[in-house]
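Changelog note: in this version the structure field was regenerated for every chain. One regenerated record is shown below for reference.
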Amino acid sequence: MPLSELERIAAIEDPYVLLRAATERLHAAQQEVTELARLRRRVIQELHAQGMSYAQIAQAAGLTRGRIHQIRHTGPAPEGAFLGKGTITIATPLKQDAIKGRPVVAMEDVTASKRLEDLARGFELPVELGHVPLGGEIDLNRPNLIVICGPRLSPVMGALYESDPVLEWVKADDGPWTIRDSRTSKIYRSGEDSTPATSVDYAYLGRLARPDGHGNVLVFTGIHPQGTLGVVSLIVSEINTLWGQVADKRFSTVVGVEYDPATGETLKVELVSPLYRHEEN
């Protein structure tokens, strides 16, 4: 009979290797417990939304009504899975400093990443931070990856966006990037690039298939940085609604953002296009 994972680790003779293996396994087990608790709470919510009472759910599951109520109101919320399951990696693009020539991260991207990190940790999701290197080469074939980057800084991301069956990034004849809805032919152009200029930006938000086909990548970016901050504001305030509409499936949408021209902070944010659910998931 094969050894269990616990027995395998306990049999390690080198104490340092054993300590490392036990620590890694404990971390993995803790993440598994968290996701099982999230899944259990989600199932109860879904059954209740379908019209079953907590008493009926308890009877069918062989649990007490009090236990069902406890599960329903404790533990990690199901909508956290909109961001991913397990350890989340948030990647922001490195840019070339115009003066010193060294790689830097734009302040707006730092702010967006930090706010998203805080949201994820609130759902008991561990977070790691990463970057899209200069030149834009990034490995997208990783689980629970969120990338805040547009096509301008990364040809890899540009190719990923091209896989979207509805929305596309298009350069206007006079130079600025725009987002085009191929279903409606509507073009979303930032107010900063319009005449007269306005304090309105547009952003892309979607979950697209990884290049290897074994999972998805959550991606978003504004035409300008104010749009990026707007997407984070939308996710923070409407994650429950977004989860209810698309769960962990593939989708894309355009986000409209009105912002304070002095600070760049979001004043109003909303979906300005349909929330397109992609057929292949």
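Spot check on this record: Residues 15-49 form the longest helix (35 residues). The two ends are 38 Å apart (CA to CA).
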